[in-house]
Specification:
Length: about 100
Amino acid sequence: MVLVITGKDKGKKGKVRVTHPKDRMILVEGVNFIKKHSRAKKQARQAGIIDLEAPVRVANVMLLCAKCNQPTRIGFTSLDDGKKVRICRTCQEVID
Ligand SMILES: [Zn+2]
């Protein structure tokens, strides 16, 4: 889960659907809808405009910690066995 911190969807929360690490973009469920014209059939009475989710910049969202339910920054720590893990900076819980 992430929280949008800037832009028109500021304050919205959503599940991350797809990540594009190369582009530093992510697709978040229910966030950043864009209108797109679809080629409707002749018989269709509905206007040919549909809402589609568009990717948002990673920098525009914050991770929402599942443990403490707060928007948080990610920290890193090493476990006893030397494995590096991501942690929530707010509650220090490990994020998988
Ligand atoms: Zn937390």
